[in-house]
Amino acid sequence: MSQCIVETRYGRVQGYQQGEICVWKGIPFARPPLGARRFRPPEPPQPWADVRPTTSFSPMAPQVAEMGASMVGAIGAERVVDPRPISEDCLYLNIWSPAADQGKRPVMVYIHGGAFTVGSASDPWYDGASFATRHNMVVVSLNYRLGILGFVYLKELAGAASGYSGNCGLLDQIAGLRWVRENIEAFGGDPENVTVMGESAGAMSIAALLGMPAARGLFKRAILQSGAAGDLPTGTEATRVAQALLTRLGLDPSQVEALAEVPLETLLKVQPELGQEFGGVRAFSPVIDGETLPQHPLAMLAQGSAKDVAVLLGTNRDEWRLFALMSGGVQVNEALLKRLFGDSAQRVLALYTAAREDHSPEFAWIDLMSDLVFRIPAIRLAEAQVQQGAPVWMYRFDWKSPAFGGVLGAAHAMDIPFVFNTLDVGLSRIFTGTAPSRQALADLMHASWAAFMRDGNPSIPGLPEWPRYDLERRATLIWDETPSLAEDPQGELRALWEEIRQVS
């Protein structure tokens, strides 16, 4: 046990031995954002004198548990409400390391997904033990504030001098990364070789971090899975959400300070209502506030904000299937189609339908929404980085799950247990089934991601040649039972979005 006692800048922490590695759970990286610190940027943790036990996960960030359960229930699995506790005192991180020996190993910091409203660093399929054991790495996972507490924007209502920020969740992530930079060497990691990795909202967070001045220099590489720099609200748009929150709570704009005293249960009760009114993720997401995030991430990338950051990114072939199932089934949303494309709506759907072997309009809609929300934003981010001369690698995850009669295909989040090599935890088995053939693919993805974190190149033995992404070949590694390389996959549909962008 003594080899798992580490001196941090704030005090000693005691983890525990787990086989060949040491594990620390629940290390504070910021002061609890309670009372007057609610809705404000994180502050460094207070030092402690004694050895602090860090052997169990902290509470999750406050969230509506039923929202997380709906994802599993949508595919016909038993709906189980998460029994883990929630608390506003949630800003803690976890570490897996081969040894606390100042060995300067590659470090990965993981930012979880969950539409900026659910999820936790303690979710079992984010376990870092396999990376630490198999690939001699240090893995860190961290919590950040979610939903109203993490992303409501109060600055315009309360005034610039109020100290409020609409990007508290992102600033929490930066605080965690800063803690890693200051402390990780004592845990066996190299603070100069940090990769930040995330999926879904975690990847969208990283896209924002790539454009945030406060995040510069805190990581060397970035891995974005199924998330990039999409449509983000401005401060003016986010202020409308804040005004609606105050109205629901019976407060007027002069009473912003009173939000610090509103019971947590009350905030969680109104959060789904605000999400429904303002379009789900868009109600609680990073805000282009002109300060912490000065401009849209793509605009910041075009100015060279992350020109020294190597990027590995990609999407899943059937991202939108999961969300379609959560909303009642696979069917074309004609109203949304018209709103998105106007007079070109039927032409766009026809092109997507023709591009499918089954010529199914319903599954063409899945492809279209997958592109709108995930694939095209990923390509836009890759293009911006390539134009800055940064090394970029692109992938697409095509492995189709046999679970539940195959309804999921290569749906959103299907790649997570392959990357982490956590195929046998409960949610992973629900998503991927139990076929033994899964493990060979997981071994390859796990090793490829580790190679990128180690030296900035995901190419490994067992994969086809995987060149860097450029604007001519657009080389993309297709992850499937047998990985292959494709040049500009679904290129005709990518070009369609380029045409739409030029017209709009």
TrEMBL record:
EC number: 3.1.1.-
Keyword entries, A-Z: Hydrolase
Annotated family: Belongs to the type-B carboxylesterase/lipase family.
Keyword Lipid metabolism appears in the UniProt entry: no
GO molecular function, one term: hydrolase activity
Domain Carboxylesterase type B: 4-483
Protein known as: Carboxylic ester hydrolase
Entry keyword Cell membrane: no
Protein species of origin: Thermogemmatispora aurantia
